[in-house]
Design goal:
Nucleotide-diphossugar_trans; two-stranded parallel sheet; 40% helix; Glyco_trans_2-like; 7-stranded mixed beta sheet; alpha/beta
Amino acid sequence: MQQSLVIIPTYNEIENIEHIIRAVFSQSLAVHILIVDDNSPDGTAQKVAALQLVFPDKLFLEIRKNKSGLGTAYVHGFKWALARPYTYIFEMDADFSHNPNDIIKLHQACTQQQAHLAVGSRYVKGVNVVNWPMKRVLLSYIASKYVKLITRMPIDDTTAGFVCFHRSVLEKINLEKIQFVGYAFQIEMKFKAYLKKFKIVEVPVIFTDRTRGKSKMSSGIISEAIFGVLSMKLKSWFYKEF
């Protein structure tokens, strides 16, 4: 069994899906890909199913009935991965905001620096974001700094969604108790790994905004990250597992 799995959640990514799959498989690190699709009406899942004939035994597809949020899609993927002997499990967007060329960097942080969680960081060395309006850059940057202040995690990009987990992290985190679905999901996973004293390493990457398809960002997702983190921090004081 291949050691590494890249999980890519999708909803209406027909414009990107074949490109991202081929780009990931073209990397020097051999990986498997799991697409978790929320029943996209644009035919994303059907395209993936057709590509499974091109990439047999290394491209996998899980279709969920409803659009239920990024966090639950990843949890679905984590459970699928843990039922199989993968050692390294990646989170990655379908829209090329995460550069497939950086997969090897995250993997090396785990294998060479013994990180349990490698974070593709936009902010560990300045601000490395391309094609975002300044308002969105500032909002994301300030949110990450706010989360770092509240949680005391030694992570500059707390909302980063391009990461690599060693399976031991996912085995120790109670996935049934993951609370959040948007940006706050990314914070929650890092915070729980931090509380369990796993080694976290930030790897500098350049984030490039999508050029095809429609962004799934919303004010509700951002609000969840800003206000949900307070609740999360408070619960960590009073509950051994939350």
